[in-house]
Amino acid sequence: MDEQITIEDRMRAALPDLTRAERQLATHVLKNYPVAALGSITALAKAAEVSTPTVVRLCQKLGYKGYPDYQSALRGEVEAMLMSPIAKHDRWAGGVPDTHILNRFADTVVGNLQATLGQIDHAEFDAAASLLADGDRAIFAMGGRITHALADYFVTLMKVVRPDVTLLSGLSNTWPPALLDMKRGDVLLVFDIRRYENTVLQLVELAVEQGAEVVLITDRWVSPAAAHARHTLAAHIEAPSAWDSMVSITVLVETLLASVQTLRWDATEARLKRLEGLYDRSRFFRRPR
């Protein structure tokens, strides 16, 4: 079996040749990947609303002896994806081709972007953008240790597009005052990539208790927070580095911003004009000589 092809890739490739029940099962697994298949075969069958023999048949069609063999391979992939920065570096350093790092990195990032855009469901993306564009809903955003910068970037620009946008701190002692202002129907945009952070999941759970709708931007292995999200957008992030690449996630953020701007253009245009007037009055930008 080709170890370069992931279980997820193998399952997606098999979809056209599956029976209706097997496709239903595979769709459930892919939507909740990889968490859905880490439990018992009975739990998986019940969640996907299929029989346990259907689970076994799907595993065999994917090239495994049965569910235990499939799950063992999946657990191996999960362990590999939760690597530390040192382990990531060592993995990429082995067998490095004789090309410049600029070329290797660029090739990987372009591949990530193509894979990300190829797997994003347009209806899911549009629904997430519509939630963010709804002026009756306040927006809150938060990221993890690495992705907090992306949440900050999103909030900085979204504040121009529309009002009622708040950046939440990663410090849990700041959440209760923020949650006081979070009402049913508001939107929490949250970023969480491997190694998934407990604080992100805790905030998501608290926000859902307040009646908030969660939009999750995560990696292709999918954060546990997806279990509580109304919409999940997954990006490919691997790179020849000790750290993952944020390029694909940045593109998703900027595309969401562009989509919300388009949906609210009349109001956004008025806000932009007011903002430019304020910049002029404050002489914020240097004028050309």
UniProtKB/TrEMBL annotation:
GO terms for biological process: carbohydrate derivative metabolic process. It comes from the Bacteria. Gene3D superfamilies: Glucose-6-phosphate isomerase like protein, domain 1, Winged helix-like DNA-binding domain superfamily/Winged helix DNA-binding domain. InterPro entries: Homeodomain-like_sf, HTH_RpiR, RpiR-like, RpiR-like_SIS, SIS_dom, SIS_dom_sf, WH-like_DNA-bd_sf. The keyword Cell wall biogenesis/degradation does not apply. One of its GO terms (molecular function) is carbohydrate derivative binding. Coiled coil: none annotated. Residues 5-81 form the HTH rpiR-type domain. The keyword Transcription applies. Keywords: DNA-binding, Transcription, Transcription regulation. Pfam families: HTH_6 (PF01418), SIS (PF01380). This is RpiR family transcriptional regulator.
